[in-house]
Amino acid sequence: MFRQRTLQQLAARRAGIGAHSVLVGLDGFVDTIVTPVGLRRSAGDNFTPITTLTEFGQRIVAAAGKSTNIELYPRTDKLGGNGPIMANALLATGARVTYVGAVGQPAIHPVFAGMAAKARTFSLAPAASTIAVECDDGKLMLGQMRCLDDITYDRICAVMGETAFQAEIAAASMVALVNWTMIPNMTPIFGALTERVLPKLPPAPNRIYFFDLADPEKRSVEDLRAALTAITKFAPFGRVTLGLNLKEAQQVAPALGCQVPEETEAGLKAMASDIRAKLGIHTVVVHPTKSAACATAEGSWWVPGPFTPKPLLTTGAGDHFNAGFTTGQLLGLEPEACLGVGVCTSGHYVRTGESPTLAAVETFLANWR
After folding, report:
1. Positive or negative, the Cα torsion across 188, 318, 169, 241?
2. What is the rounded CA–CA span in Å between residue 88 and residue 212?
3. What per-residue confidence (pLDDT) applies to 22?
């Protein structure tokens, strides 16, 4: 039983997480979580919500040629962006974190204050913003992110100093560079790292380089292929892991000439294996909402997920999976156990809204029915 194996490995090794430093970046968003109002009865939250994206979409389509008003009821403002959410989740595990990204100018935005108090934090630009419309069957992320245009390798060096940035990478057990889609200059940053930085550093074959594309639908296939090629160039310097949710995997696979199988255990394992083989990297992980699969050169693995039809929130679920999975990698867990830690980290978060400690992940695993 994978749960028991995961529990055994995690219990034996979780105390070692504090020995690991991780560098995470490069985005940053202020997320406003909202509920679309279907029928308002009185003030405040006295309304019937629009519960599905289908119904929400029908409201919009029905307004074509006319107009409509859709109220978005604010639930909370929270730290957002793939990088900050993943960094916060890694901090909860006990890892030491350096964050480099768009978290406020001239001062760090208040939603990042908790993270900045625990992580070495370098802000490159003002934070972007997202209105996250959450429904029972998914979410719609409406973003304003022009400030992310300013994130470049030269900007990183101007803020941190090139020598200091290189020292942070040299000290890191993992470098996680996420949200490629929304950072226009991310591919050149990948190139600067593999051409100008990593060749100068002492060899670190066990360092993890983690990448999350973050829904590349709005980018061209040519841009996507260029980014994937740039990611493969990290392979000589360590263990490259590409994390994909199901939609992202279904976009990456055809871009590489791979088949897109059905969302079954066999299909997900095959897709992860095919993408990994095409790229020639260490690990590819694919995580739908109800399960997760990964592949390395040694084989492929799949685990079910602790799916709940009524999550407290879903924005950030994938980033918590990524934090859990890579925490397993940092601890040297087997791939199946990494998947187990990933799905339980995400499962805990969507139920509670809180990033779990590794002790909380253990408890979740033990109580999972």
Report:
1. negative
2. 16
3. 98
Picking from 3, 22, 84, the residue whose alpha carbon sits closest to that of residue 331 is: 22
Cα 182 to the chain's mean position, in Å?
13
Number of C-beta neighbours around residue 356 at 10 A: 25
CA dist list (Å): 39 to 64, 73, 313: 20, 12, 21
- Whether 292 contacts 248, CB under 8 Å: no
Determine whether domain 2-33+77-367 maps to CATH 3.40.1190.20.
yes
Strands 72-80 and 138-144, sheet pairing: unpaired
| In the chain, domain spans | 2-33+77-367
CA geometry: angle 242, 247, 248, nearest 5 deg:
30
Give the global pTM: 0.92
What is the tens place of the pLDDT at every residue in 235-282? 999 999 999 999 999 999 999 999 898 899 999 999 999 999 999 999
Backbone angles phi, psi at 23, to 5 degrees: -110, 125
The number of residues in the chain equals 369
The helix/strand/coil state of 39 is strand
Contact between 278 and 257 under an 8 Å Cβ cutoff? The reply is: yes
Place of tokens 């791939």: 335
Neighbours of 132 (CB within 10 A): 23
**Does the bond joining 106 to the residue before it have cis omega, within 30 degrees of 0?**
yes
Structural contact between residues 211 and 243, judged by C-beta atoms closer than 8 angstroms: yes
Contact present, 189 and 153 (Cβ < 8 Å):
yes
Q: Dump pLDDT digits (tens) for 50-86.
A: 999 999 999 999 999 999 999 999 998 889 999 999 9
Mean pLDDT, rounded, for 295-314: 92
Read off the DSSP letter of residue 74. E
Cα–Cα distance, 302 to 238 (Å, whole number):
24
Distance CA 97, CA 119 (A): 5
pLDDT at 312 over 90: no
Distance in angstroms (rounded) separating the CA atoms of residues 315 and 193: 30
- Work out whether the CA dihedral 95, 96, 100, 104 comes out positive or negative: positive
Cis peptide leading into residue 26 (ω within 30°)? yes
Q: What is the DSSP letter of 80?
A: E
